[in-house]
Amino acid sequence: MKIVFVHQNFPGQFLRLAKTFVEEGHEVVALGMQRECKIPGVKYYSYNAVPGPDDPKWDNRYSPVIPRLRRAYGVAHKARELANQGLEPDVVVVNTGWGENLFLKDVWPKAKHVAYFEYYYSAKGQDLDFDPEFPVSSEEVIWRLRLKNSMQLGALDAADVAVAPTQYQRDTFPTYLHDRIEIIHDGIDTDFLKPNPTVKLQLGDKGVKFTREKPVVTYVTRNIEPMRGAHIVLRSLPYLLDINPDLQVAIIGGKGTSYSGSAPEGQAWLDVFRSKIERPVDWSRVHFLGNLPYEHFVKVLQVSSAHIYMTYPFVLSWSSIESMALECRIVASDTAPVREIITDGVNGRLFPFFDEKALAERVRETLADTEKSAAMAREARRIAVEKYDYKKVCLPQWREFLGIK
Question: Which of 79, 80, 126, 399 has the most CB within a 10 Å radius?
């Protein structure tokens, strides 16, 4: 079969599927805005966002629709070029968050068009109004979300079928659309992601050494920002360090922004959060590791004694399920996306998102009750293998959904 994947930052969620289908002998084509693709066997074509015929000269800060429309035009132009050269795909799979699928059904009308949905925004009850520390600055913020949602609805109209990775993410869409959106996770490699009781790690020749002989509390986020609760984790540091004089805290994450707005006055959120910690912190025991290569990220979680995961009501991070597969002793925010994968007292411990003292207390319980914590960690891995293993669970679901044998 001929399969086309489209993602402005390809491969994104499609990495494993693209690799699998290439290995099986299917013709796999990908379109994105990166200059190159390093997946062997994938025929990759880069496109540029371009203005449409009636492109308004608006400032992109005020209309999120404009950059999405330009991506839609740009990828459609590249697709038309490929169609004129004879490319006629059987399946076209597009992450709709960037507007890229809007015109592709007109270019390839015979293909099965699949919309991959991540999130539908809301003015109430999700991420926007969740954190009172960062209130909505004006109603125009809400208007921007409605414009983004209008693009999602257009994406659904331009697709034959749709899919979302978790039930929570599917349920952010209007109720009347739920039966049109299948739930299939991207999947994780649970054969690779497994515990290693003998793991040791040193980052750099003179970097900190981590072993399982002394307690290590870990926290992972793509970037240190409010959406993933970094401000709460930073405020919990004095209480975490009080638990044990040998305890170390390892924080993985960059200093940019992924989902939250920019920090005030051109600062990094990390600097803002550090300045607001009310008690002294022994920073020699807190290690900011930045964004690590994947194999180092895995080793940090393998050495973890208690792993913190936090998120607003928003898209669930891959790392949350990866930490389950690694048998981490998970302490997580009691928010809707998390409750889909963590049951308090069964495969992890939950705490109220804004309560940094409760976070520290749950970590203390985790470190103190080693037998129960280990049992919950084993249950977390069992669930990860049973529900989210790529080869055994998710790939067969994707095959059936896409109609690829």
Answer: 79
Over residues 282-294, the pLDDT tens digits come to: 999 999 999 999 9
CB 111 within 8 A of CB 24: no
190 vs 324: CA distance, rounded Å? 10
Structure tokens at 255: 């200093």
Q: Do the strands 306-309 and 181-183 form a parallel or antiparallel pair, or are they unpaired?
A: unpaired
SS3 state of residue 28: strand
User: From the centroid of its chain, how far is CA 329?
Assistant: 20
Question: Omega into 11 within 30° of 0, i.e. cis?
Answer: yes
**Distance in angstroms (rounded) separating the CA atoms of residues 248 and 179:** 47
Rounded (to 5) percent helix, strand, coil in the chain: 40, 20, 40
Amino acid letter for position 324? M
Measured between alpha carbons, how far is 63 from 85 in angstroms, rounded to an integer?
A: 35
CA gap 275, 284 in Å, rounded: 17
The letter for the amino acid at 367 is: L
Q: How many CB atoms lie within 10 A of CB 62?
A: 12
- Number of CB atoms found within 10 A of residue 265's CB: 6
- Residue 106 contacts by C-beta under 8 Å, 6 or more apart in sequence? 76
Domains plus CATH for the chain?
2-187+390-402 (3.40.50.2000), 201-388 (3.40.50.2000)
**Rounded to whole angstroms, what are the CA distances from 130 to 122, 143, 184, 233, 322?**
11, 17, 27, 17, 26
| Two structure tokens written together for 273 | 């959060």
Cα of 35 vs its chain's centroid, Å: 23
Q: What is the pTM of this model?
A: 0.94
Q: Would you say 232 and 134 are in contact if contact means Cβ atoms under 8 Å apart?
A: no
Q: Please state, in angstroms and rounded to a whole number, the distance separating the CA atoms of residues 47 and 377.
A: 44
How much is the average pLDDT of 113-126? 96
Residue 60 — very low, low, confident or very high, per pLDDT cuts 50/70/90? low
Give residue-wise pLDDT tens across range 178-202.
Answer: 999 999 999 999 999 999 999 998 8
- Taking residue 280's Cβ as centre, other Cβ atoms within 10 Å add up to 9
CA dist 36 and 49 (Å) reads: 16
